[in-house]
Amino acid sequence: MIVYNEKSSDFIDHIYENKIGYVLKENVYKKMNKVVSEGEFRSWENSLPEMAKVVRDSDIEKDTHILLEYKLPSTEKRIDFIIAGRDKKGKKNAMIIELKQWQKADMAEGSGIVRTFLGGRERETVHPSYQATSYKRFLMNFNESLYTDLSIQLNSCAYLHNYIANRSNEPLLNPKYNEFIGDSPIYFQFGDRELAKKINHLVSEGNGAEIAEAIEHGRIRPSKKLVETVGSLIEGNEEFVLLDEQKVAYEKVRSIYNQAQTKTDQKQVIIIKGGPGTGKSVIGLNLISAFLKSDAYVEYITPNQAFREILRKKVVGNSNHMEVRNLFKGSASYVDTPEEYFEVLICDEAHRLKEQGHMKKKIPGENQATQIIRSSKVSVFFVDDQQVISKKDIGTVKLIEEEAEKQGAEIHTVELESQYRCSGSGNYIQWLDSLLGFSDEHVELEGDFDFNIVPDPHQLIEEIVDKRNGRLLAGYAWQWNKKPVNGELPKDVVIEEHDFELPWNDPNRIDWAIHPDCANQVGCIHTVQGLEMDYVGVIIGKDLGYDPETDSLVVRRDEFRDRGARPAKPKKGQSDPLYDLVRNTYRTLMTRGMKGCYVYCCDEDLAAYIKKRMEN
């Protein structure tokens, strides 16, 4: 969707008449039913007059076309500025120009990452040239008009009109960014003449209506090149080989999809139920590859941002497959998606679906499950009811079934049982379910999974982090003060009797689970759900304890610090829903390990109870 598509002469008139912000504001409301924020309005008023000067000085024909605020399909990203026309040889060209009001930036760790002042504080973000290149590659791989009509040449650059570059040592021009700058040049303040020359070279002869039409109305579908790329990345990776019932589930979903092609008026909803380590993500990644090969428009959804980033890295590694990364989306991405816009949507960790996304508008009668089912002909949900860990988590099997029935969908259910995590020890999962009261069956702990109770948290660091290169995790029994203190993360996870203190995981590192700098941080449930590591050390806070007199687990509401996840106090005579949420949390944390899990309990009676259950 494009908010503004006009001739360059009309664009310049709107600037000189001080109308451009109001025109865009009105168009956003008409086309997207959204109210523009004051900050976004100001950004238009500040940046677009600078571009009008460049366009005026580029000496181009009046019927060159200007496209503003092009919303990349099924994303929240918008391209600031596109100019389209023909060059002196009659060739069709379009140029993406990413506009920034930055005044200063510094280098940061990671490919294409910089630090600058955004949203009231300094934070990490992508290099402007990387951003421009990623938008260009998105269009070239998803807009059918552009990857089939090879006569349109797409270019990209970044323009930082308020930024005075340091001639001797400019961070944004550091050689580590050369790959992106070479593809998308960066222009600073006083670089407007060079940018004007580039625009003149590409679109001086105007006649941009046809090109603008192709960009705005091109059918959105992955290109053959992208399909082949995804296939090679997944099929060539031994980590994604399907075993036994994983293969059965995979083939059943494909069969339902093939049958759905003959049922044009019938939605299909497939619910795949499976506990921790049953290989749900392996099935999902193989499915997205297969559906892309079938010429289906498909996306992979994960509500958890950290899990989404790890999945992306598992698929693309450290390479710059930006277009592949764009296939992975958050669960709040489908608020405005039209009916059956996609052929298939695959939702992993569906138990983390919410009523609505953070800072997203609320549509009466809809939740994220509603939106996913509405947006797709076939919807696949991977779900585990016992991983619901917050009052905000609504994605139960029952709710998905109810939403599917409301939309007249045919419902299919597949169950996974084989265990591929925890050393393949189904016994450990059964024992843990018995320990935490999810099962009445008495199970003895046996098998190869390395489980142990340690007497103090320092030993947890020694055994898990130092010896086994694992990660520490904890229940939400400590406050999380997100603001750094003197540039360092606050050490919130404190156990005074052992003189122990460590910070929660860095909220700016969504790859916390694999980043070496994060080894001595404690992962919270919202970061680690869906992830897996060889070894984990779990700190069980005082929110979960054991009462020897009643021989039962107890959940202490006053020790549970996650206010956003905590349900209201139950009425007299009713059971406390927090009891299930806390147990679900620790079940999830204690099943993140592939080879082993060591535990420290703040409640001594709980530690003694677990030891007793281990011995029995």
Automatic annotation (TrEMBL):
Stated name of the protein: DNA/RNA helicase domain-containing protein
Matching InterPro entries: P-loop_NTPase, SLFN_3-like_DNA/RNA_helicase
GO molecular function: helicase activity
Organism of this sequence: Virgibacillus xinjiangensis
Keyword terms of this UniProt record: ATP-binding, Helicase, Hydrolase, Nucleotide-binding
UniProt keyword Nucleotide-binding present: yes
Schlafen group 3-like DNA/RNA helicase domain span: 267-603
